[in-house]
Specification:
By secondary structure, the chain is mainly beta. Helices cover 0% and strands 56% of the residues.
Length: 249
């Protein structure tokens, strides 16, 4: 395995980015209080499942739909990279309740949803959410040609449904071309106090709390996988009041 990298959040959510050489195996196993998702970013993977091998292929996350597998608590499998290897993201999320073994199921992407407009238009695909999962929310976003995304700045920090839900979030990024970059801004009250994270190809990042927003470099495309988990099992965003007027444009 080529330098797997992991980010972890205080609530138990973690995300690992793998570059898997051709023919190499990756063992996936969940505990009784944990569920797992493996999303193929690019390449080819074959999973050894009780009903037979399942092979998935993805040429490029910017043009091809997401694919992979969801593993409920108490399940395990082994995946093998194809002849050109594979790039994949593994997500572990605490399950709401202990559970016995169940079936590993394929992740298939629905149609992408267009959100925002103009310089903050992006394409979002929600891959997994309750009730299919115990408590994991998982999806992908494409922000093309230097656009903003996760915009206007919003948070999901406090449990106050239906207005806001408490979820922590982790991200894995790709850029096109790979020399590109983006910026993640996070802040608790005022954008002037924002913390800045530079995003390069295959970067990982987390947002445990606060408002956040993402921008891609001009002329570059930004892809990211996002995973969220928390006290609530659905996503309700609280937009920064200074920028909420954009939702009416």
């Amino acid at each position: 395995m080529t330098n797997p990298r992991t980010v972890r959040l205080p609530n138990g959510l973690d995300l690992t980015y793998y570059s898997i050489p051709p023919g190499e195996e990756l063992a996936l196993k969940t505990r009784s209080v944990q569920e797992t998702a493996l999303v193929l970013v690019a390449g080819q993977l074959t999973a050894a499942l009780p009903g037979g091998d399942d092979t998935v292929v993805r040429t490029d996350p910017f043009v091809a739909p997401a694919t992979g597998w969801h593993m409920p608590p108490g399940t395990h499998t082994v995946v093998t990279a194809g002849p050109r290897g594979a790039e994949a993201v593994e997500v572990h999320s605490p399950a709401a309740e202990p559970s016995g073994p169940s079936d590993v199921t394929a992740i298939t992407a629905p149609a992408r949803e267009v959100r925002g407009t103009g310089s903050w238009e992006r394409h979002v695909t929600t891959l997994l959410q309750p009730p299919r999962t115990s408590a994991l929310l998982l999806g992908e976003t494409l922000a093309l040609d230097g656009r903003w995304s996760t915009f206007p700045p919003h948070r999901h920090q406090h449990s106050n449904p239906p207005d806001e839900t408490a979820l922590q979030e982790a991200f894995a990024f790709r850029t096109r071309p790979s020399t590109g970059f983006g910026v993640l801004l996070t802040y608790d009250q005022d954008i002037r106090d924002a913390r800045t994270t530079v995003l390069t190809d295959t970067s990982l990042a987390t947002v445990p709390h606060g408002y956040h927003t993402i921008a891609g470099a001009a002329g570059h495309d930004l892809y990211y996988l996002w995973a969220a988990h928390g006290d609530d099992t659905h996503l309700a965003l609280h937009t920064d009041p200074d920028h909420a007027w954009l939702l009416d444009t």
